[in-house]
Amino acid sequence: MENKTMKIAITSQGTTLNSRTDPRFGRARYFIVIDTESNELTVHDNAVNLNAAQGAGIQSAKNVADLGVHAVITGNVGPKAHTALSSAGIEIYTGASGAVQDALQAFNAKTLLRAEKANVEGHWM
Prior knowledge:
alpha/beta
């Protein structure tokens, strides 16, 4: 996918670009959404899914799809979340680490790998 004029959701443990990326998609603390054209940044709390007994990945996927994102950057993604994101036409990039800003730079440099399948089992903590 072309890396301009798109919204990207990055899983985060905090609310700023300096926050650490969250290695979990479904149970990420926050999603930081960045519009790559305007550089506008919005923060979306994912606390409702943080301690969900089940369905966190699917519900988180629905939430980011409702935000109009084109891609998700995270550390890991489970099978149900991967299926839900892919069905919504959202590209998934895994292996993110360090600060949110680092993940964004890696995406822009095209050094993140697109996840063609889940890289962890369901209910991974």
